[in-house]
Amino acid sequence: MKRRQKNAFTARGSGGLPGPGTSLAGMLSPLRAALEKTGFGCELTLSPIRFADALAVWFDLAPDSSALTLLFSLSPTDDEEDGVVGSVAKAAQRLGVDTVDAFENGACVVAAGALRELAGMLEPAGMMAVLVDGPIEAGDAEAMIQAARAGQTPLEAEIRAVAALRAKSDHSVVLQARNPLHAAALVAENFRHYLAALRNRPAGEFSRPEYWQLERLLSLTGALTVRPIETEIFSTSIDVGISTDPDGRPRPADRSLIYDIFSRTWHDEP
Question: I want to staple 87 with a disulfide (CB 3.0 to 4.6 A). Which of 12, 47, 106, 137 is the partner?
Answer without folding.
Answer: 106
